[in-house]
Each structure stands twice: as C-alpha cells, then as structure tokens.
Amino acid sequence: MYEIFADLHVHIGRSENGKPIKITAAKSLNFANIAKECAEKKGIHVVGIIDCASPYVIEDIENFLKTGEAYELKDGGIIYQDKVCILLGSEVETAEKGRNGKCGSAHNVCFFPHLEDIKGFSKELSQHLKNITLSTQRTDLSGYELIDIVEKYNGILIPAHVFTPHKSYYGNCTNRLENIFKEKFEKIFAIELGLSSDTYLADTISELENRTFLTNSDAHSLPKIAREYNKMVVEDISFQEIVKALKQEEGRKVIANYGLDPKLGKYHRTYCDDCNKSIETKEPVDNCPMCGGKNVTFGVFDRIELIKDKKETKSPKNRPPYIYQIPLGFIPGVGGKTITKLLDAFGTEMNILHKLSQDDIEAVVGEKVARNIENARRGNCQVQSGGGGNYGKVSVKEKK
C-alpha cells in the first residue's frame, strides 16, 4: 500500500483539432495536455477527466493510445508515462423535480473503467440530450434513472459539487439525496463537496455520515488542476483501486481531503447581484437586507444552514481530516513567473506544497515569497468570503 494524490474532476476545453467541448474551459485543456500537466507539473497520480463521453474526445483518446505514451489497464484506467492514471469520466446534468415542485437540475460525475465502456455510455446518453459532443448538456434523465445506465456500462456515479446554488442536488433540487435516489441511495458511496463547502459543513447532514467525501478542482484551466485534491491509500493506481478507496474496502481509503477554505469558493455566502456584495447575516435570507431586492444568489453556507439536521458538526470516526490548502496561484506575490521558477527547481506543485522547507523555497524565489508560501501552508492567512460567482480573497498574516 502507498499514498497517492487524486483530482477527480478536470474538464476538457477543446479537442485536439479545436472542436469545442466545455465552452467555459480553456482551449489548452485537452486530453494530452491534462495528462502532461499532472505528470510533469502537478504531481497528481490519478486524474478524472470528465468530458470523455464526447465523440471528439473519444477520438482523441484513441489517437493518444496509438502514440505509445499511454496504455489501458485491465483493472481500468489509462496509464500515462507510468506516472499518471487517467479515469474516463462524463459529467451529466440531470433534470429533477426540485423544491416546491419547481424544475431543478444537478450535475453528476460518472466514471468508467475502459474506453469501450464509455463508448457504449456515450452512445446511449446521446439519446437523452441534444448535443453529445459538448460537455455537461442537460438530459431528460433523473439521477434515479441515470445511475442504472451508468452501472450498465460498469461505471460509478458521484453527485458533483452537491451544495452549489445552480447545478446541484442540495443547491436547487432537494433537502435530502435519499429523496432523489430512493432505494438506490446505497449505491451512492461518495459525494463531491465543491469549492464552497468542506467536511465540517457537510457533516451537519446525517445522511452523509457513511459517504466518502471528495475534494476535486473542477478545473477549467491547466493551472487550476489540483487546487483541491485527495490523498488516498491504494495498492496501485487503477479504476478498480480508486473505487475500493471510495468504498473503503480492503484497506484502501481516502486519508485526507485538501481543499480551499470554503470562504474562498465562488458561492460560499448569499450574494446580492444588485449591490454586488455578499450577505453575511446570521440567519439565511432570501431578500437583500441592504437594498431589499430579491435578485440574490443563495450561498452554500446558507443552504446548509437551512437543510442541516444536526445542531453541530459530528463526523464519523473514520472521516479523514480536511486540510485547508491554499493553491500557489492564490498566494499573494506568487504569480505565473514565480510558479515557473519553483516548478523548474522542484519538479511538481505537490513537492512544493508538501515536501520542501521554507529555506529551500527561499533559495529560489526570495525571503518574502517564501514566507508567504510558508504562512499559507501553515494556515496563517485571512480570507474574505466569496459569493455570486466571485472567488474569495486571501491575505497572508504572520502569527504573532
């Protein structure tokens, strides 16, 4: 058994020949570039690419395998340069009967062991949406129906960023996942927290006590890969091993979640779109207390306050620690040129965040930047809450 880092939610912006896949993602995000970024810069051992049901991406994967740099595993997944295991995934938007009978929508990340599996899934999924070539298109399926199709092709389903206001189960569909999945809820063995929540918020909801929590980046550009990630114990890197870790089977498990302070997330607090300000009242509100308007985006913190059924956080004994991790790009004074210097000297972002001393870093980028990185690693920072699609802000403070 050994420890690995995994980020299971990375988007593709364009195919190799420039076809759009995820419209809001960077053009540089293609299958090959993601594999190289994880191997050469990030130090991520397992990456979930969640736009692989697009026929354009399937074609790219087939061509990628022909290069000889990558190969499929019997236990599932594609190995690149013997360093990174790529899980073939699809993000699917389901249509749900939301709160008060209104129509809601939710995102799901689905992973499949082999290319042939996701090919079959893609073909069937194309019958339930308008354009299979684009990522995360709205389907006519519910989560209850989708999970059967996913399992038909040997896959697993994980509810994505479950608390975000626009496209998630708790955010705009339901107060309880069990209401959606009913008797199939036992098949949901992991959920993705999203950037605006953490373990301590999610563990105020009792139905999640036996579910594994995942912290993933939802990256829409190469630098955003591994802004959140998971540390797991596995015997090897493969689809099968990751599934065992998510199910906590045979000693495999998630042993730490590394994520942003949820205040840094774009939807942490309710936000008034007229005032352009976060609403940080003690009690959740539907109207802006400053202008009285109803043009507000409900925040993750406030949603959880409304739907939680525990008075305080009480995590199960086997819940791994949630470690607040400030990505290099969020740290004051650490821009693109500084990150390039650090990567040239030390290899990967995981090395910089987890292994190096402050003196090592200082030798490359100077005392001030090294001190900022060290303070961020130790949690010596102040965070201004984000909301309404705007990230929070970090200021690094030294402890007295």
Folded structure, characterized:
- With 400 residues, this protein is an alpha+beta fold.
- Helices cover 28% and strands 21% of the residues.
- The chain has 13 helices and 17 strands.
- It has helices at residues 31-42, 55-66, 115-125, 143-152, 169-172, 177-181, 199-202, 239-247, 300-307, 336-346, 349-354, 358-365, 367-378, and strands at 2-10, 46-49, 70-72, 78-80, 84-97, 103-112, 156-159, 190-192, 212-214, 229-234, 253-259, 270-272, 277-279, 296-297, 322-324, 381-384, 393-396.
- Strands 1, 2, 3, 4, 5, 6, 7, 10, 11 and 15 form a ten-stranded mixed beta sheet that branches. The protein has a three-stranded antiparallel beta sheet with strand order 13-12-14.
- Helix 1 links the parallel strand 1 and strand 2 (46-49).
- The radius of gyration is 21 Å and the shape is globular.
**Regions with little confidence, pLDDT below 50 for 5+ residues:** none
Computed over alpha carbons, the radius of gyration is: 21 Å
Note the overall shape.
globular
C-alpha termini separation: 41 Å
Number of helices: 13
Topology pattern, helix = H, strand = E: EHEHEEEEHHEHHEHEEHEEEEHEHHHHEE
Mean pLDDT: 90
Beta-strand portion reads 15-25%
Structural class: alpha+beta
Binned, the helix content reads: 25-40%
The tally of strands reads 17
What does the main sheet amount to? 10 strands, mixed
Write the layout of secondary structure elements.
Elements (H helix, E strand, L loop, with lengths): L1 E9 L20 H12 L3 E4 L5 H12 L3 E3 L5 E3 L3 E14 L5 E10 L2 H11 L17 H10 L3 E4 L9 H4 L4 H5 L8 E3 L6 H4 L9 E3 L14 E6 L4 H9 L5 E7 L10 E3 L4 E3 L16 E2 L2 H8 L14 E3 L11 H11 L2 H6 L3 H8 L1 H12 L2 E4 L8 E4 L4
Parallel strand pairs: 1-2, 2-5, 8-9, 11-15
Antiparallel strand pairs: 1-10, 3-4, 4-5, 5-6, 6-7, 10-11, 12-13, 12-14, 16-17
Helix pairs in contact: 12-13
